[in-house]
Amino acid sequence: MSGPETVASAPPMMDDQTADGSGSLLYDIVYDIISSPVNLALVGIISFLLYKISKSRQPPATLPPPPPELPRLRRDFTVAELKHYDGTQPDGRVLTAVNGNVYDVTKGKAFYGPGGPYAVFGGRDASRGLATFQITSMGSDEYDDLSDLNSHEMESMREWEMQFKEKYYLVGRLLKPGEKPTNYSDEDEDTPTDSSDVRKRTAAAAKAAEGSTASTGAPSSHEAEKKSTDSVKEGGGGGGGGGDATPKPEADKPKAE
Question: Which of 1, 73, 94, 194 has the highest local Cβ count within 10 Å?
Fold first, then answer.
């Protein structure tokens, strides 16, 4: 009877040996990894690659839809009316006045809206603040005629105004006390005031002026320049000293009609 009992108890002894062997092998692997800097670096790289692969398979996060674009606004404002457009109203529109003109700066709400670095200009006349580089306080809520600004401050304000004209839409004028608002037509509402349209209108006017000058027989600037160059060549060409090679600007200007 002792024989069978011995045979039956043999397998559990083998399982214990196998478990001890597996534990020893795992221990050896872990020890080899942590004992070698190269192995640690490889494990880190492999872990990073696996993380990137798993991250790329995840669906991208959906961004919230952009807010709807506000309809164009075309009208004049008094100082009191302008104060209501500081970005805190339900539509979030932000208007700012510079040098007597009101601009829609809603697309720059991060700067001129509530919490922005220039939020003090929202719904206000920013002319004096831009001219004097003082943005901490806008002073009085009354109409500011800017009559006490010096020439340097006025020039600074006009430079800011040019930037506003290039970036934002012109809404209307900032009305003086007692001044009546302008009745803008529907065509004016769709007319942007960006620099591209200004350049187009300027180019069209220049082209029309050039055509008018050509029809009246007056030389164009290109023709005058060519004649001036030819006269320089004729005066300086032949060897030396026979004529004045300096073009005379007054003779090259087209005469005003």
Answer: 94
- Spatial neighbors of 74 by CB under 8 A, at least 6 apart, are 171, 172, 184, 188, 189
| DSSP character at residue 61 | P
Cβ contacts of residue 76 below 8 Å, gap of 6+?
A: 102, 172, 173, 174, 175, 181, 182
On the CB side of 207, how many CA atoms lie within 13 Å of its CA? 6
For residue 98, give the nearest of 148, 151, 156, 58 by alpha carbon: 156
pLDDT tens by residue, 154-192: 999 999 999 999 999 999 999 999 999 999 875 554 444
Cβ burial, residue 112 (10 Å; 0-12/13-18/19+): buried
Angle separating helix axes 195-215 and 151-167, nearest 10 degrees = 100
Q: Which residues are registered as beta bridge partners of 125?
A: 97
Whether 128 and 149 have beta carbons less than 8 Å apart is answered as yes
The model carries a pTM of 0.50
The vertex-248 CA angle with 243 and 251, nearest 5°, equals 115
